[in-house]
Design goal:
By secondary structure, the chain is of the alpha/beta class. The protein has two domains: 170 residues, 2-enoyl-CoA Hydratase, Chain A, domain 1; 287 residues, Alpha-Beta Complex (2-enoyl-CoA Hydratase, Chain A, domain 1), CATH 3.90.226. The protein contains 20 helices and 15 strands. The strands form two sheets. Strands 8, 9, 10, 11, 12, 13, 14 and 15 form an eight-stranded mixed sheet that branches. Strands 1, 2, 3, 4, 5, 6 and 7 form a seven-stranded mixed sheet that branches. Strand 1 and strand 2 form a beta hairpin. The chain is globular.
């Protein structure tokens, strides 16, 4: 292993690069000690750690002591995570055994070189133990990406550019954390009275229109998706994949982005425009893996001190048998619980449909915005009509009764502001819709940036506490 410090386009890092040519890159006591010291240097210098792995696993010749190196290096990585310092591993071919099952995969971000293979047990061992054949491409970088185990697959020539983007975001987060001094007195801007984006409020609210027509517009196949907004409203989006537990839900997209010079984490539901894309994205209905991916990215943002922006557009969480078997209710519940305590600013924007708990799983925020023709409700109008009448043709009547439009939600205090759309709606001019969204997010996010974490959390929890007994009249 080669260890030291370096700069990547001006960003200081501590670096450890394993060399497969020496004893198959096996992890022994000296290798473990050198990587641990590199991590400790990163902690002392307050810089990110980058690990480039290539290994057949623990060094058998050194017995149980080599096994202990997995824990030794992992706890050094844990200390960096606790300190809010970015850790990145780059998987090269091959990365197996004790290295794969420790520091190669317990970093904040895992990048795989195109063509790299990674796993705990190698293919020969698996065939010998199971007596079965293996799927094509098993344990390759693309296989790992599809199964949610790596953030991205990168060609070696593109690796530097990717690292620069990731390191710049981490550096921005550390500056933001340093700026939020707990002793500062920050004026409280209560929910329901947000800042400058209110200039268009009157026109936006007046344009709410009939509730059922608003539902139809919110579902329009041409309506901009999360990926559309990430291309028009945000800059420099770098998508991060996977829940690290075996899946990468296509109904949820997320990653690092910028609003001008402000780095942040963006997570959103992704529907699509064509029938094929809608089916591939499961119509924006997140599986448990989608909720866990979102949660992983939001937790990473919290560690790095980056604000979180969520883009909500879902008819609801995936209601299928597989989703229930994999713990859908618990996945949604965990998101809601963790979001209430994120120590960074959170702005949620309902861009289309805000369907029940699947929407709330990305909308426990300091500020909740709704596009002019978005909707947000506990159940779909069709579902409500089928239960109450029972006749799904009564959906227009149910839509009006549900009070699901943006002006309705603002009146209830659930939403803080209505983001205007270009006439007649966002699908008519996606570029203009993106610019309006950008302005609104900046207007609501900026006042939150200097608020100390403890104050953010307290106010966020007070915000949702308002919807309890005081609202019910108990």
């Amino acid at each position: 292993v080669v260890c030291g410090t370096a700069r990547v386009c001006g960003n200081r890092v501590a670096l450890a690069v394993m060399d497969f040519r020496f004893l198959g890159g096996s992890l022994g006591c000296v290798v473990g000690e050198l990587i641990t010291r590199t991590a400790e240097r990163a902690l002392a210098d307050a810089v990110p750690l980058v690990l480039v792995t290539a290994s057949g696993g623990a060094r058998m010749q050194e017995g149980a002591l080599s096994l202990m190196q997995m824990a030794t290096v992992s706890q050094a990585v844990a200390q960096l995570r606790e300190a809010g310092l970015l850790t990145v591993s780059v998987l090269t071919d091959p990365t197996y055994g004790g290295v794969a099952a420790s520091f190669a995969t317990n970093t904040d971000l895992v990048l795989a070189e195109s063509g790299a293979r990674m796993g705990f047990a190698g293919p020969r061992v698996i065939r010998q133990v199971t007596g079965r054949g293996l799927p094509e491409g098993f344990q390759t970088a693309d296989f790992l990406l599809r199964h949610g185990q790596v953030d991205m697959v990168v060609q070696r020539r593109a690796l530097r550019g990717r690292l620069v983007a990731l390191l710049a975001a981490a550096q921005s987060g550390r500056r933001a954390v340093a700026r939020r001094e707990p002793a500062r007195s920050v004026p409280h801007q209560p929910p329901g009275a947000p800042p400058a984006a209110r200039s268009a409020e009157g026109d936006a609210r007046a344009g709410g229109g009939d509730a059922w027509e608003t539902v139809r517009i919110a579902r329009h196949p041409g309506r901009p998706t999360a990926l559309d907004y990430l291309g028009t409203a945000f800059d420099g989006f770098v998508e991060l994949h996977g829940d690290r537990l075996g899946a990468d839900c296509p109904a949820v997209v997320g990653g690092l982005a910028r609003l001008g010079d402000r780095h942040l984490m963006v997570v959103g539901h992704q529907k699509g425009h064509s029938t094929a894309e809608l089916v591939a994205r499961n119509f924006g209905m997140a599986s448990p893996a989608g909720h866990r991916k979102a949660l992983r990215l939001m937790r990473l943002a919290a560690r790095l001190g980056l604000p979180v922006v969520t883009l909500v557009d879902t008819p609801g969480a995936d209601p299928g048998v597989t989703a229930e078997t994999q713990g859908q209710a618990a996945a949604i519940a965990e998101n809601i619980l963790v979001m209430s305590g994120l120590p960074v600013p959170v702005v949620a924007v309902v861009t289309g449909e805000g369907g029940s708990g699947g929407a709330l799983a990305l909308a426990v925020a300091d500020r909740v915005l709704m596009l002019q023709h978005a909707v947000y409700s506990v159940i779909s109008p069709e579902g409500c009509a089928a239960i109450l009448w029972p006749d799904s043709s009564a959906a227009p009547q149910a839509a009006r009764a549900l009070r699901l439009t943006a002006p309705d939600l603002c009146a209830l205090g659930i939403a803080d502001d209505v983001v205007p759309e270009p006439a007649p709606a966002a699908h008519a001019d996606p570029e203009a819709a993106g610019e309006l969204l950008r302005r609104a997010v900046l207007a609501h996010l900026t006042p939150l940036l200097d608020v100390p974490p403890a104050t953010l959390i307290r106010r966020r929890r007070q915000r949702f506490r308002r919807f309890g007994a005081a609202r019910s009249g108990v």
